[in-house]
Specification:
This protein is α+β, with helices and mostly antiparallel strands and 417 residues long. The protein contains 16 helices and 10 strands. It has a single domain, classed as Orthogonal Bundle (Cytochrome p450), CATH 1.10.630. Strands 1-2-8-5-3 form a 5-stranded mixed beta sheet, sandwiched between helices. A 3-stranded antiparallel beta sheet has the order 4-10-9. Strands 6-7 form a two-stranded antiparallel ribbon. The N terminus is likely disordered.
């Protein structure tokens, strides 16, 4: 059976860039049309947990080569701008394949070992308290995205990577440009405008690595430089810069959205928020449940390297797959009552929000740590936090990164420490 010929309504209704509320349509797809073709972006859509996990597992048939390929191909003018700007990052992690992926991933894994993350926890907790204190100084209501969740993950990540605090706003703005270019559908004029920020972003990262080679400090970038030990056979300087630009984008945009998704849903279900305030030991499991229920990275991509059949659907070599992590994570065959939030859920190791297999999210230990710390401090200091009623939620049009761009909240005051 070829899904292109079925004509099921799901195929025609599905807009992969509309992230406002994809869950009802995805639930219908899992039942009626779990694999279908979307002509708008030329991708096959995969919705069931079993199928998504199988694709992740078979990294030879389903390669990561297209993971950071722009949905909207770069125009000739943009390609010329990148060439003229000496924009030369190479595949290193999420879009790389063995054997180079194996070589680089083995080194980068060492950056995020639990004992290394514990070294940074005091600084992360101090930052969380500082940011919550600054929030409270402004009154008793705020857009929590602008006031807290937008900047906090960037300051954490940039601290552990060794980016100076004063550079954080600019680097954050540059990373926003990269997401729109690679995961959205900018117009030709918008492509050119975003590319104007992409080239200086790359040169900033290259310069940062070069400075740290000359003057090492206590951060993850320098850890990687030390592992290289001046040997290009281990890792080239360009590969280090490519790792850094990848981490500087994926390592905080995703956490910003996941923090915001968590607050949105916990504050919408007051009993869940109050349970976390009363039993903060549940927060690590609650973080996993939120990644299952509403993952900030809602899709991932794969390239089909040979003709395959998935659930009786023929998919040709050269096809692109869009793996719907948000659909797989609400598959009732794995997660009973999948549309309900349960911070005590027992089988959360099965969720796919962080991927699976050789490309499992390398920064997962840091993301988990900073979310745990921030939610611990928020439930301790702001137990009265609640959503402003009747607000509209907006989401950026793209295929992968889902989180409200604004979330208005109010509170009664800071609880006593």
């Amino acid at each position: 059976m070829n899904a292109q010929s079925v004509g099921c309504p799901v195929s025609h209704q599905f807009d992969p860039l509309d992230l406002r509320d994809p869950f009802p349509l995805l639930a219908q797809a899992r039942t009626e049309e779990p694999i279908f073709y979307n002509a708008a972006i030329d991708y096959w859509i995969i919705t069931r947990h079993e199928d998504v996990k199988a694709v992740f597992r078979d990294h030879e048939t389903f390669t990561a080569a297209n993971t950071i390929t722009p949905i909207e191909p770069f125009s000739a003018e943009v390609q010329q701008m990148l060439a003229a700007g000496n924009y030369t990052p190479v595949p290193v992690l999420s879009n790389n394949v063995p054997p180079d992926h194996t070589r680089i991933r083995k080194l980068v894994n060492k950056l995020f070992l639990p004992r290394r993350m514990r070294h940074f926890e005091p600084a992360i907790r101090a930052l969380a308290r500082e940011r919550i204190g600054a929030l409270m100084d402004e009154g008793n209501r705020a857009d929590i995205v602008a006031a807290l969740t937008y900047d906090f993950p960037a300051h954490v990540l940039f601290h552990v990577l060794g980016v100076p605090d004063e550079d954080v706003p600019q680097v954050k703005a540059w990373s926003d440009n990269r997401i729109e270019l690679y995961y959205g559908r900018p117009t030709p004029a918008e492509q050119i405008e975003r590319t104007k920020g992409l080239v200086p972003f790359w040169h900033y990262v290259v310069g940062l690595v070069e400075r740290k080679i000359e003057n090492p400090t206590d951060d993850l970038t320098c850890d990687l430089i030390r592992m290289r030990n001046g040997d290009d056979a281990i890792l080239t300087v360009n590969e280090i810069a490519s790792c850094m630009i990848t981490l500087l984008v994926a390592g905080h945009e995703t956490t910003t959205a996941q923090l915001t998704n968590g607050l949105l849903h916990w504050l919408s279900d007051r009993a869940q928020w109050e349970l976390l305030c009363e039993q903060p030991n549940l927060i690590p499991n609650a973080v996993e449940e939120m990644m299952r229920y509403d993952p900030s990275v809602c899709t991932w991509r794969r390239y089909v390297d040979k003709d395959v059949i998935i659930d009786d659907v023929e998919i040709p070599k050269g096809a692109n797959l869009l793996l719907m992590l948000n659909a797989a994570n609400r598959d009732a065959t794995i997660f009973p009552q999948p549309d309900q939030i349960d911070v005590t859920r027992k089988n959360l190791k099965e969720h796919l929000a962080l991927g699976y297999g050789i490309h499992y999210c390398v920064g997962a230990p840091l993301a988990r740590l900073e979310m745990k710390v921030l939610f611990e401090e928020m439930t301790r200091l702001l137990p009265s936090l609640r959503l402003l009623p009747e607000q509209s939620l907006n989401y950026t049009r793209n295929i992968s990164f889902r989180g409200p761009t604004q979330l208005d909240v109010v509170w009664d005051g800071i609880a006593q420490s």
